[in-house]
């Protein structure tokens, strides 16, 4: 019986919701008809006359106060709505309407309680998709001591966020440590150093690791058992300690290069020894994997030092040799360093060869890949391209290829054109980037803006598409633009930088409505204060015009219906 009663109540509720959803017009006219029928006992005519008499006795000061108060209240609502929208990305009034009024008006399905598990699963999947917004190591990241810290000394601003530096600490622990580090005191110290938050503590730990290694570097071992002939054996130095000092303590690129060369000497020796022992067990295999990561990192940073110091051809050779020696280590994205160096040399044929190898559908894309391909296509036509001429004669095959390449690049990362066209100021790139996000756009434009300027007409061609990314319906070459980029970029980029957001959030209706209401009431208050008599005449004319159709309908209804209808209804 209880279940039957509950089902009957649910049916009544569903009928009421359906009636409010589709038959609101009938309800409205029914209410108007009842008001008309009950106009005599409710004394509507007398009350309306009293209200009209009261309004006629009001002075213009009352209307000035009324419109001024309305303007003030709507202005306060506008300010609050704008603040709420800037902070949370949605309208407060719309959110309250959806949360509280929509269920009353039938916006929630009747079986929502039965599908609570599925809705919870959807929310969990949404949270999981946000958490899977993967952050990548910036292949062109700067040196902390020689570049990031110098920026801090000059400007007093911190270019790196805590979240970004924490990700770097996790990367260092992953690449430069292994489970057998406790067997060597220097590696044990460095294992703790990578976890340190204080930069000075990390630098002190690196010096301590080198000192311990220096003390223990000379060990006397007998050449022959039970012999008095002894040999001094040199133990390998700690390569990761040199890496930390080169990254954080060196104040110039030249100093960092010297320390990386010392790290290379130590790391190469460790790599060769672990290479011989890697098949002796899982422990030796982990050591070899760690030593491989250390060696690749050192060589890559040495190539970047050569690029910073102007020895670009030497840097290109080092990068090519590194990619040949370790072809499977694509996690460092060394080909992006190579592309930037080749563009500096203006070796566009070599750049095209690298793109042919890495611009593959099976490989993850990046802004460097997409925009470098667009730059090469634009280079072929940019010096002769004219939007006016192209609109008259149509696009040639080469121009069409350039347009398609730019569309593809902008669809992948729509933030880059703002920085390439210098519509937005650049900052130092972070140590980690989010692909298709503002952080990746900053990292790309920071190093590649000069290459675009060097190609005559390339920026003009890009500027002709300055309305991109709004007309992106052309492409759909990649997955839909992720919704988690803004949150991740705000964590990666410093607070003084205004994060570029795509797609642009349109202003909610209630912000526009309150802005218009505030402006309109303020204008009415000003006009009423300045021209009270004229505004009074205008208000009376407006109200009479507004109620003219209603008076006409009332007169027609009174002529059709008998005047004694109410008395007849009461008798029935």
Automatic annotation (TrEMBL):
Species for this entry: Pipistrellus kuhlii (Kuhl's pipistrelle)
PANTHER family: SUPPRESSION OF TUMORIGENICITY 7, SUPPRESSOR OF TUMORIGENICITY 7 PROTEIN
Entry keywords, A to Z: Membrane, Transmembrane, Transmembrane helix
Gene Ontology cellular component list: membrane
Entry's transmembrane regions: 22-42, 62-85
Membrane protein topology class: Multi-pass membrane protein
Pfam families per record: ST7
Family membership noted in the UniProt record: Belongs to the ST7 family.
Name under which the protein is recorded: Suppression of tumorigenicity 7
Location in or out of the cell: Membrane
InterPro entries the record matches: ST7
């Amino acid at each position: 019986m209880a279940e039957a009663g509950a089902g009957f109540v649910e049916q009544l509720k569903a009928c009421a919701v359906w009636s409010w959803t589709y038959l609101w017009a009938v309800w409205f006219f029914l209410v108007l008809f009842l008001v008309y029928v009950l106009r005599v006992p409710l004394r509507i005519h007398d009350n309306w006359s009293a209200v009209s008499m009261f309004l006629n006795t009001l002075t213009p000061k009352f209307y000035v106060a009324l419109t001024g108060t309305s303007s003030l209240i709507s202005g306060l609502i506008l300010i609050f709505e704008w603040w709420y929208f800037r902070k949370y990305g949605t309208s407060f009034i719309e959110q309250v309407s959806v949360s509280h009024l929509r269920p009353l008006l039938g916006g929630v399905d009747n079986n929502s309680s039965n599908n609570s598990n599925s809705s919870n699963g959807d929310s969990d999947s949404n949270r999981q998709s946000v958490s899977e917004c993967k952050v990548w190591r910036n292949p062109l990241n700067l040196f902390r001591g020689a570049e990031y810290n110098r920026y801090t000394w000059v400007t007093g601003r911190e270019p790196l966020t805590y979240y970004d530096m924490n990700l770097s600490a996790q990367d260092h622990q992953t690449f430069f440590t292994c489970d057998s580090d406790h067997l060597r005191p220097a590696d044990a110290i460095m294992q703790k150093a990578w976890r340190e938050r204080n930069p000075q503590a990390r630098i002190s730990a690196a010096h301590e690791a080198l000192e311990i290694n220096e003390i223990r570097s000379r060990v006397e071992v007998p050449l022959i058992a039970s012999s008095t002939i002894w040999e001094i054996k040199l133990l390998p130095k700690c390569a990761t300690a040199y890496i930390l000092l080169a990254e954080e303590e060196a104040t110039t690129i030249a100093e960092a290069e010297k320390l990386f060369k010392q790290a290379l000497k130590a790391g190469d020796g460790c790599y060769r020894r672990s290479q011989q022992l890697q098949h002796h067990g899982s422990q030796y295999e982990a050591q070899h994997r760690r030593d491989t990561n250390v060696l690749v990192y050192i060589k890559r940073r040495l190539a970047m030092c050569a690029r910073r110091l102007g020895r670009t051809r030497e840097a290109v050779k080092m990068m090519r040799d590194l990619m040949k020696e370790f072809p499977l280590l694509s996690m460092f994205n060394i080909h992006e360093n190579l592309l930037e160096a080749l563009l500096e040399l203006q070796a566009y044929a070599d750049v095209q060869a690298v793109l042919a190898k890495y611009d593959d559908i099976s490989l993850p894309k990046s802004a460097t890949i997409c925009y470098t391909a667009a730059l090469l296509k634009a280079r072929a036509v940019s010096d002769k391209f004219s939007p006016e001429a192209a609109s008259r004669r149509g696009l040639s095959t080469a121009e069409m290829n350039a347009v398609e390449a730019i569309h593809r690049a902008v669809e992948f990362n729509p933030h880059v054109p703002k920085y390439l066209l210098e519509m937005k100021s650049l900052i130092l790139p972070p140590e980690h980037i989010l692909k298709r996000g503002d952080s990746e756009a900053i990292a790309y434009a920071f190093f590649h803006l000069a290459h675009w300027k060097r190609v005559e007409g390339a920026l003009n061609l890009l500027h002709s598409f300055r309305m991109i990314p709004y007309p992106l319906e052309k492409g759909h070459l990649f997955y839909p633009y992720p919704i988690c980029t803004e949150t991740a970029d705000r964590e990666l980029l410093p607070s003084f930088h205004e994060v570029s957001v795509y797609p642009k959030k349109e202003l909610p209706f209630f912000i526009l409505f309150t802005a218009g209401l505030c402006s309109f009431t303020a204008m009415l208050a000003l006009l009423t204060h300045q021209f009270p008599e004229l505004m009074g005449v205008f208000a009376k004319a407006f109200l009479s015009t507004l109620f003219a159709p209603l008076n006409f309908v009332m007169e027609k209804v009174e002529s059709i219906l008998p005047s004694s209808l109410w008395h007849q209804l009461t008798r029935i």
